[in-house]
Design a protein that fits this description.
This protein has 738 residues and is mainly beta. It is 5% helix and 53% strand.
Length: 738
């Protein structure tokens, strides 16, 4: 079925509810002037009488009343009492029409009475002037009457876009159903009179008539505050290109007194958390960056504040701070609420900057609270070797300083290569180290940039970062960020090995080795089997010995993408990390490697990796002279027909029953340890180590005695006699491919 549990974090601010009255249905929440309202189809509530209940996220229940009916079967309900709903102020995207032109599918978000929500995947069949026709993508899904009011969303570039509200359903003779969705921009148009009618309370006096005076962005600071015997009142804010001008009046209420103003004490934050410092002031008859001025009691004086180089994308002010100081002592910082900037072609709408306990919990592909910062992953993308990871970060309850270092951010690709961040951007601060005071409840963009990321990578298997405040620092991690499917694990390719061993909790696979002239190249994959661990290697301790015993030290090592005389890197659990080792100045006539030695070090200990008898020119190292024969046989018939399972590490190589014998030819390992188990799932202890010498023959007896299984290498003369004792065996020798 195409109905899925809702677990997707969104960038949109719309929240849905379940409606219970004479009928059941759904609706979407929208706030106005601090009150919470529900927009729903009118037919869901028209016969409800006085009792209408809504249930939101986490099954929060509220009572609502019908406030107003609008054309196209739209009703607006007011939340009167009960639990607090996740009510937000949202707006329709300015490019809504172009979004409709390119969208082909979406999903209905259906809120349930218990507070959960489900997604029904739909195809968009037709788009008309006001309605969108949709059909379930899965033929088993049907539209029913109780779905009226469900919200239609689509996802573009990771952003959840509200397209409209399901109004009616049509059922055809073959059982299929179509749904008709009223477009969200028409919902906004039909209800605009209601939601803009009292908007002057939010905008501090701005009215619809005030709009349209020019193409400049205009709004009004919501500020009327008294402190230190002064009264500061907001008049207007205007944005023209990259310059923003805010106008206030300042009045001394108690006496004539001198004040000091400076651009250094005036700043604002936009809806992305970018900070702008005032560049110049005009107060009464004076202007400049800093000056003193005498106020006459009761006479309001106009204060004009200019900000230059404001981003073209800025559409609102989440907070403006204006510091005023009296000459005879005392100072105060006046702080505005949110200031909405709008154009003459758009009606007033709130800035989409969520608050704690509101739509912030619905944001992001990943979300966590770290050191009282709310951190949301918004997007990540790789382009031509550059990786850009975008977060939104918010400090709740109080202003809080944050300090970030690029060296504390690192990612690993699906080949185990690790990359340190090359740059950070927090608000409009950019550099390898950034610090800023995050204003309470102001959402700030954080971009982490990585240069030199492996082009063609499937994604990020691990992202590690660290946030710091004035008291402490804390790390966080994200895993499996696929470039092709958000939230899906990355399919990590594993190459076929020609030799493998386990050491230090690592699986080390030899993929290839070759010699050209006097240079030899060895390629491995190193995989940590249980957890992430830091591995150290140094070329000064890595050697190979040719068949004449001549020793050559490694000239170059590369682990993941770390290259140097010594390397240190975190090997991510279950992700193969490439290890390349190059030797130079090898004897040109050398035909092979008698011994390869490479110490590996983790946080606990050091162990040496050893490989023997590798012939150059044989890609799989399966040369006859370098291979060994192992002859396995069951000694005696004790234990009835119960098999004994033989393992090398966690790999089963044989199941030996009485009367059975096997031959294994191997060219891969120089030393193996065989374990015997009576049950595949049981743990095994100890084991018989077997050194595989060049061209050697080994006889291994498997026994069952007194309830215990064991395996032991037998001396060649005795082993040969046992293995060829035909009376002991049921059939011919079986060959095992290693």
């Amino acid at each position: 079925m195409a109905v899925l549990l809702l677990c997707y974090h969104s960038l949109s601010a719309q929240s849905t509810v379940f409606i219970e009255s004479s009928e059941i249905g759904r609706g979407v929440l929208l706030s106005r002037n601090g009150e919470c309202f529900v927009i729903s189809p009118y037919h869901v509530v028209e016969n409800s009488g006085l009792t209408i209940d809504v249930f939101g996220d986490k099954s929060v229940r509220s009572n609502v009343e019908l406030v107003k009916r609008f054309p196209n079967d739209i009703a607006v309900l007011r939340v009167t009492d009960g639990g607090a709903q996740n009510c937000t102020r949202w707006s329709i995207p300015s490019d809504y029409a172009s979004i409709l032109d390119q969208v082909v599918n979406g999903y209905l978000e259906v809120r349930q009475r218990d507070g959960s929500a489900s997604l029904m995947q739909v195809n968009i069949r037709n788009i008309e002037d006001e309605f969108i026709t949709v059909q379930p993508r899965d033929f088993r899904d049907k539209f029913t009457k109780g779905l009226s009011g469900a919200a239609l969303f689509t996802t573009i570039d990771g952003n959840k876009i509200y397209l409209g509200m399901l109004q009616s359903v049509e059922v055809y003779d073959d059982g299929t159903t179509d749904g008709y969705v009223l477009q969200s921009d028409d919902i906004a148009r039909l209800t605009s009179e209601f939601f803009i009618e009292n908007q002057s309370m939010i905008l501090g006096g701005i009215t619809q008539d005030k709009l349209g005076l020019s193409d400049n962005l205009t709004g009004s600071p919501d500020l009327d505050e008294t402190a230190l015997g002064f009264r500061l009142q907001g008049k207007e804010i205007r944005k023209n290109g990259s310059r923003t001008t805010a106008t206030f009046t300042l009045t001394s209420l108690t006496q004539d007194q001198q004040i000091r103003l400076s651009t250094n004490s005036i700043e604002f934050y936009d809806e992305s958390g970018k900070k702008y410092q005032a560049t110049d002031l005009r107060f009464g008859s004076v202007s400049g960056r800093s000056f003193s001025y005498e106020l006459i009691q009761g006479v309001p004086v106009e204060l004009e504040i200019n900000f230059s180089n404001v981003s073209s994308s800025t559409t609102g002010v989440t907070q403006m701070r204006i510091g005023i100081q009296r000459i005879d002592g005392g100072k105060h910082t006046f702080s505005t609420g949110r200031i909405i900037l709008t154009t003459n072609t758009k009606r007033n709408s709130p800035i989409a900057t969520p608050r704690r306990g509101n739509d912030i919990s619905e944001k992001g592909l990943w979300h966590d609270n770290i050191l009282d910062f709310d951190l949301n992953l918004v997007s990540y993308r790789e382009n031509d070797g550059n990786l850009l990871v975008h977060f939104k970060i918010t400090s709740f309850q109080e202003d809080r300083p944050i300090r970030l270092h690029s060296s504390s951010f690192e990612v690993w690709d699906d080949r185990g290569g690790s990359y340190k961040a090359t740059n950070l951007r927090l608000g409009n601060n950019r550099g390898r180290t950034v610090s800023q005071t995050l204003e309470a409840d102001v959402i700030t963009d954080l971009y982490v940039e990585f240069a030199g990321f492996r082009a063609g990578s499937k994604g990020v298997v691990l992202f590690s970062g660290e946030l710091g405040n004035e008291r402490s620092r804390r790390k966080f991690q994200l895993r499996n960020l696929s470039f092709f499917s958000y939230g899906q694990p990355i399919a990590v390719d594993r190459l076929n090995a020609i030799w493998s061993t386990e050491i230090l909790g690592l699986t080390v696979d030899l993929i290839s080795y070759s010699k050209t002239g006097t240079t030899a190249n060895f390629k491995f994959q190193v995989t940590s089997t249980d957890s992430d661990q830091v591995i150290n290697l140094s070329k000064s301790s890595i050697y190979l010995f040719d068949e004449k015993g001549n020793r050559t030290q490694a000239a170059e090592i590369k682990l993941g993408n770390q290259l140097g005389s010594s390397v240190k890197q975190t090997v991510v659990a279950n992700v193969p990390t490439n290890l390349d080792i190059v030797f130079r100045d090898i004897r040109s006539a050398a035909s092979g490697v008698a011994l390869f030695r490479c110490p590996l070090t983790n946080d606990q200990s050091t162990q040496e990796l050893q490989i023997r008898n590798l012939a150059f020119g044989q890609a799989t190292a399966q040369a006859g002279a370098n291979c060994s024969d192992i002859f396995l046989y069951r000694l005696g018939a004790v234990g009835a027909e119960k098999p004994i399972y033989l393992f090398v590490g966690n790999r089963q190589v044989a199941a030996v029953r009485p009367g059975e014998r096997f031959r294994i030819t191997t060219c891969e390992k120089t030393r193996i340890k065989l374990h015997a188990r009576l049950d595949r799932s049981q743990a095994s202890y100890g084991g018989e180590p077997i050194d595989l010498s060049k061209g050697g023959t080994h006889y291994v007896a498997v026994t069952y005695l007194f309830g215990l299984a064991s395996v032991k290498e037998i001396k060649p003369k005795r082993g040969y006699k046992d293995f060829h004792h035909e009376d002991w065996y049921n059939g011919p020798v079986e060959v095992i491919n290693w």
